[in-house]
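Minimal example, chain plus KE4.
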Amino acid sequence: MPNADQNDILFERARAVIPGGVNSPVRAFKAVGGTPRFIRRAEGAYFWDANDKRYIDYIGSWGPMILGHGHPAVVEAVQKAVLEGFSYGAPTEREIELAEAILALVPSMEMVRLVSSGTEAAMSALRLARGATGRKHIIKFEGCYHGHADALLVKAGSGLATFGHPTSAGVPPEVTQHTLVLEYNNIAQLEEAFALHGNDIACLMIEAIAGNMNFVRATPEFAARCRALCTQHGALLVFDEVMTGFRVGLHGAQGVLGITPDLTVLGKVIGGGMPLAAFGGPRAIMEQLAPLGPVYQAGTLSGNPVATACGLATLKEIARPGFYEALSKKTRSLVDGLKAAAAAEGQPFDADSEGGMFGFFLMNELPQNYAKVMTTDNAKFNALFHGLLDRGVYIAPALYEAGFVSAAHSDEDIAATIEAARQIFKASQPR
Ligand code: KE4
């Protein structure tokens, strides 16, 4: 069938052997409907689907591809590394180099442990916080995602006195009974939670610029209270910077906010697209980890020599002078252009960006918490998503996800994206 849609064919084949046809749920387009695009290849700011249709890519593998796809220096580093071996299960100099590079860029870290995914890094940081403090309770926020470790798949309880309930089948309530889920940017609730449980709290884990409810900033006051209350009660402040680390700026969200967390979780950009993540903090805490201390954590492919080559080459490029100024300017031009296009067509719309990360809302305000984000008109978002996809612009297939611009996106790509959005805003004018 010459004109058959290859994505449909592949999706049907995939669903026969992989649950939902995907290896990570958001890729299935369940939130927006339609057929996921099976990507054949990527280059620079673009990738091509199974029908060989080109898209301007604003996913960037959900953050890692900050340089764009196939940056020559990164490709060269990976090609060289694979010829030396794929994995040894033994220490390498390159792991030291990457650790040193990360510590040089994240002053709140004195030591770092490399792992293979953000989930693994956040889960391990949580275990370390509990081990280092000898406490059980943790605080997280509705709308923040820290990977799929059991204790973090939790929705808010019925009040501050009650702890969270699992958001996933297969997570026993015993596992989430120590997780308190609070409303993001709600200082009163934060104060109350610490007043009630302060001395039993091992850590507060937060995305200080939240990219899992689209794009919501912690207000400076809220972030400062998180820091102060953790210090006051001996709880550890854990910044989950898997998405924001090296994405919103060279020093991450902690650099933007000027807040020093006790532990930082990293991922995505530090692997440059390969499976690599990390968590780190002060020596006194990190030395609680095996093999030195009592907190166990391990991984067959941790510090993988090919992934570390990819990560090092990526960090080298983003550390170049002017990299973030140029990237921030480009991302801001996208956001400002979308806002102007929506305003010109009388469409409620607001947007924000920091560094190479952006988000937008189909409302004339920037929501401050998850409940507000989720008041978005799903049908309107889906129409925008598919309208852009049809026009060769691929944004996140879910309204609660952020977007990402790379150094490879050109001014022409940004202009084409704004024009595509303008056409959709115009077409969705109330008749
Ligand atoms: P991974 O285990 O997916 O590498 O990282 C989990 C994680 C931890 N912390 C934050 C702040 C994250 O954003 C993530 C993963 N982000 C999602 C996108 N919202 C990854 C995409 C997916 O789940 O397929």
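The first helix runs from residue 6 to 17. The chain has a mean pLDDT of 96.
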